[in-house]
Amino acid sequence: MTHSFPVRVYYEDTDLAGIVYYANYLKFIERARTELVEGLGIDQRAVKADSGTVFAVRRVEAEYLAPAHFGDTLTVETAPVEVTAARLVLQQDVKREETLLFSAKVTLVALTAAGRPARLPAVLRQLLP
User: Which pLDDT tens digit goes with each residue over 83-98?
Assistant: First the structure.
């Protein structure tokens, strides 16, 4: 299962050279994760209200392979790598057409409202392979 999310590079996303500022790739992949979860029919606000569970990024392994530029249309591809009772690992790639620009392996965990570890919601574990 791979989820695709389109991103257009705006001027505000770039540095003086017109190249996407490195931290903005993290914003792009964050948006893609949100769209993936919502696309699965999971309302993160409802999960928080019902169980007090929230999601947090525990680890990001990122590789910057080639620059994106002002005006580019990119695609963020997100695929689950590992789903356990306590964590979700995703592979997220940012491409311009077929060219891989940025690649990240992201580990997410579930937390209680108090910041303590929690189990991933069952509905999420069931929907992801």
Answer: 998 899 999 999 999 9
Helix (H) or strand (E) holding 26: helix 24-39
Q: Are 93 and 63 in contact (CB under 8 A)?
A: no
Domains, the chain, in order of start with CATH, read: 3-127 (3.10.129.10)
Given 15, 43, 50, 72, which residue is catalytic?
15
| φ and ψ of 116, to 5 deg | -90, 150
Task: Identify whether 15 is a catalytic site residue.
Answer: yes
Instruction: Reply yes or no on whether the pLDDT at 129 is more than 80.
Output: no
Cβ(110)–Cβ(40) below 8 Å: no
Spell out the residues 6+ positions from residue 1 whose beta carbon is closer than 8 angstroms to its own. 79, 80, 128, 129
Say how far apart CA 42 and CA 5 lie, in whole Å: 17
